Amino acid sequence: MLITTPAEQLLTGFPILETRCQYCKSTLGEGDPVSAYVVRYAGDDEWTIPHIYCRDCQSTITDPTLGATELLAEGHLGVTMDATTQRASLTLLEIERITKSAPEEGHVTL
Q: The whole model's pTM is what?
């Protein structure tokens, strides 16, 4: 079954594991505005966020990867609480803009 959803809905609440800007290495936390690089490779079912950037180091998708759907989402970090497990997670919230690169766009990476 194919399920479609807007990228903003998909990414809202997505857990952030890396808490440092990919470029300047500054520590990011709750309330900080960020850009998150989100990718899903052809054949994969799951999206990942391998990189986040502070607003000073905002990134763009300049060289799309062939065979990958890439998104650059702008929003801020927030803490989401799971009432059942009593665990808090740093998550991506209030997505403002999405830049997208489709799998058929881009270049082969080695």
A: 0.81
